[in-house]
Write a structure and sequence with these properties.
There is one protein chain. By secondary structure, this protein is an all-alpha fold. The protein is built from eleven helices and no strands. α1 packs parallel to α9, α3 packs antiparallel against α9 and α4 packs across α10. The longest helix is centred in the C-terminal third of the chain and has 23 residues.
């Protein structure tokens, strides 16, 4: 992989990317509040399960397939992937998260040098979702597909670990141990995602949906999801 491609992926995975990922916990905050993930070991196990049971079956396969669609200029498939991601968000706050991050990433791309205005317009004409906007950004780097997914998963992991540190709460060393556990599991999650076809993607995480609905009315919270 070219140095420039690697650096673009590092940029996309960075928590400093101005798309607001730091402001979401994806229901982890409610899992902590309801004593489902109230310790380091519980939070670590929760996030590893979320990686394999949710991300590896839904968003990661969608990103992989959308990258191929962006690279072949298949606008119909891009629109179908974007609609599918929207349909998998089972609460208003999870839908708001993917839309806000998707729009913010498109704004970032408008000031970048990779995606073309025509490509950005394809997604801007819909309700852009973060996975499909990320697929556009990653497709333009020229990086191999597997590396694009590794960057997506690692960026998710870093944001979730920061959410765990703030909500459990945990110290930085505990956060690094959780991140280590997640990075050890990410390659297998990527392998699973890459083996999925159009008919194999699934979004069935009922407890996440329930906790998200509870989070919307939670008395006190730090995060937007």
């Amino acid at each position: 992989m070219l140095d420039s491609s690697l650096m673009q992926l590092m940029w996309l995975a960075s928590p400093a990317l101005p798309i607001g990922g730091f402001s979401y916990s994806e229901c982890l905050e409610t899992a902590v509040d309801t004593a489902r993930a109230a310790t380091e070991s519980e939070a670590s196990a929760w996030l590893v399960d979320q990686l394999h049971l949710s991300l590896a079956r839904s968003d990661l396969p969608a990103v992989a397939q959308a990258i191929a669609a962006w690279r072949s200029d298949d606008e119909a498939r891009i629109a179908a992937f974007n609609a599918w991601v929207l349909q998998t968000r089972e609460s208003s706050e999870l839908r708001a998260q993917t839309e806000q991050m998707g729009k913010s990433l498109l704004d970032w791309l408008r000031n970048h040098t990779t995606a073309t205005p025509a490509q950005i317009a394809v997604l801007a004409g819909q309700e852009p979702t973060y996975p499909i906007a990320y697929a556009l950004a990653a497709s333009s780097t020229g990086a191999p597909l597997r590396e694009c997914l590794l960057a997506y998963a690692f960026g998710w992991a870093e944001n979730m670990v920061q959410a765990a540190i703030k909500s459990v709460p945990l110290g930085q060393s505990a956060g690094q141990r959780i991140l280590s556990a997640l990075t050890a599991e990410i390659p297998a999650a990527i392998d699973h995602a890459l083996s999925r076809g159009d008919d194999d993607r699934q979004a069935f995480s009922p407890m996440l949906a329930i906790l998200s609905a509870q989070h919307e009315v939670q008395y006190s919270r730090l995060f937007r999801s």
